[in-house]
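Q: For a teaching session next week I want to show students how multiple molecules come together into a single three-dimensional assembly. I've collected the sequence lines for a complex. Could you give me the predicted structure tokens for the whole thing so I can convert them for display?
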Amino acid sequence: QQPVQSPQAVILREGEDAVINCSSSKALYSVHWYRQKHGEAPVFLMILLKGGEQKGHDKISASFNEKKQQSSLYLTASQLSYSGTYFCGTGRPAGGTSYGKLTFGQGTILTVHP
Amino acid sequence: DAGVIQSPRHEVTEMGQEVTLRCKPISGHDYLFWYRQTMMRGLELLIYFNNNVPIDDSGMPEDRFSAKMPNASFSTLKIQPSEPRDSAVYFCASSLGAGSYNEQFFGPGTRLTVL
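A: Of course. Below is the structure for the complete assembly, covering every listed component.
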């Protein structure tokens, strides 16, 4: 099952904050976040593992809520370079053919204006 | 170090023709993934390999699609015969360790247009 991202699109001015959510109908074991700029390939941002701590670098961080089966990506003091489409990808535990792969959400389009 | 390499970067072909997309993963990576991206369906996994062995091909849309990985440094995705609805960007990605627990590195993609 594909995870569901919300919102589908966000428009910000430089310096504003944003939160992107990723919800799964199945138990979460790992959550990846990727950013894709127009015409380019997705680029890895971070990974969160079940039982792990909140991750972050610079002004982008993420949380993992096992109980809610949800992860959130936090972008603070947004910059023009943050514009792009953000994807979450969910992973399954060891065992079975699903172990090695990710299932990606539909993406959230983030636009940052000057 | 070179990242994931894909060729061709762009392919325009006519319906019914055979199309072969190529991928060279990052050296040492043991997982390789083929994705297709369209506006309608988003980023969907077609097939993935572990140590050159196909593990899950449940995302391959039809028998017209086939993928091989003859060695650790090369993989192909073939569409025969191609149809207009196959038009999409096809990405190859690789990872060191299971892709669900490790960073996946994406190639630049092949933009396929089937007329």
